[in-house]
Amino acid sequence: MSKFTHLAFVCFLAFFSAAFAQEPTSGQTERASSSNQEKLSAQSDPPELEAYLKFRRWINAQPEGNTPRGEMLEAYRAHLADQGLTSTEIETELEALRRGGKRQEVELWNQVLTAEQPRFNTAPNSFLVRMTEGVEPGTALDVGMGQGRNAIFLAQEGWKVTGFDPAEEAVALAQELADKAGVEIATVIQGSEEFAWDADRWDLIVLSYVMVRPHIGQIKQALRSGGMVVLEAFHQDATQNQSIGRGVVYESNELLDLFSDFRIIQYEDTVATADFGRRETRVVRLCAMKP
Ligand SMILES: C[S@@+](CC[C@H](N)C(=O)[O-])C[C@H]1O[C@@H](n2cnc3c(N)ncnc32)[C@H](O)[C@@H]1O
């Protein structure tokens, strides 16, 4: 790409899927390699690939810095309209691009989470460790489990753990690490949109740097009475000096509102080294129990 770096493009895709789903699926933007793009080409079905390449040509032709990121979607929509596409055709095109973006996002996480030199905390989340100390183990669900650092910790503590994540290479690594650790974890390669959440099933749901808002009803329903959610994410302030998907960012006290029907065990709004990004920043943490 001549005028926009690939990183900008990937950022845009993350934004783009967010613009549709109202929630981006990542907590961090990372540089994706050209091999990722090749994988995407191989894995996308034709309309997605076509939409992706067409969009790439368009963004490549934009004057540098001319279109603020937040206005790109509308600018592209207008461009498609100028080309004579009907509103139905535009929506079909954008939907195909969104699907391609989703695959790109998965590739990104595969790459980040299986990197030989990880740039995230590979130890279990410290808040999860604290909040589960002394809790009788039961069934646990690790949402967007990544490479399994939290699932494996819980299994070691005697929990019967299931984790799911659409990033298949990260999930494969989780299974490999669980084997090495001599524990069993059940894994599912799915996103939150497809996962069968069920009702009254889990004693613990782990929400570590993953999107929650679109699935809040399913999460609450899936917990057993007396079951807990343990969540860690970024505070809005953390976005001042780094690009973070809105899905893992909360305003002050927003989590308290989201879980106002639960018993709040612990809420923290503090400056700490975030597990993702690995810099001192403002993070929010919630442990809450279903009545
Ligand atoms: C910041 S990582 C957190 C990983 C893990 N929870 C942890 O704390 O180590 C975000 C994770 O969300 C996953 N993810 C992306 N899209 C998702 C979706 N639609 N549903 C569930 N998880 C998703 C990514 O693959 C990635 O593993």
Please describe what this structure looks like.
The structure is a single chain. This protein is α/β, with parallel strands linked by helices and 291 residues long. It folds into two domains: 6-113, no CATH class; 126-289, 3-Layer(aba) Sandwich (Rossmann fold), CATH 3.40.50.150. 41% of the residues lie in helices and 19% in strands. The protein contains ten helices and eight strands. It has helices at residues 6-21, 34-43, 46-60, 72-82, 87-113, 126-132, 149-156, 168-181, 216-222, 254-258; strands spanning 139-143, 160-164, 186-188, 202-208, 223-235, 249-250, 263-273, 280-289. Strands 1, 2, 3, 4, 5, 6, 7 and 8 form an eight-stranded mixed β-sheet that branches. Strand 1 (139-143), helix 7 and strand 2 form a beta-alpha-beta unit. Helix 7 runs parallel beside helix 8 (168-181). It is globular. The chain starts with 5 loop residues before the first helix and ends with a strand. The structure holds S-adenosylmethionine. S-adenosylmethionine binds at residues 25, 27-28, 105, 109, 113, 125, 144-146, 149-150, 165-167, 170, 191-193, 208-210, 275-276.
